[in-house]
Predict the 3D structure of the following.
Amino acid sequence: MKFILIAFACLAGLVVLGLIVMAVALPKMVGARRLAQEMAAVHAITTLNTAETQYYSQFGHYAAVLQELGPGGSALIDTALASGEKGGFRFELQSTPTGYTIRAAPIEFGTSGTHTYYCDQSMAIRQHSGSEPAGENDPPLGQP
């Protein structure tokens, strides 16, 4: 009987220790995942800029929507990015009189990201800290 009580106490101690470790580690893991998704979104914007440059050299104008860059169009980007959602972010491509704009925002703000992004044909990626859409007046990446 004494052995069972000791075993039960040890097991309870291990469960408590496991819960403490999870409470400490889980927020760090979520933060690391969010950062990885934001970095992937920036990489996707770079991919879109490259695709737009190639599209322009082939057709003499920029693509107006993501689908024109995807497998059903010029096949310069993958299906997921052409759909407008990839890696926890939603991407929008719009034509402008002078070129194009790209906007990226987390699908679930706070979970998949805490920044929004903006880019145009200048290829300077701009970041906004907060859920509001990033725009041309936000600072470029790497600047406060």
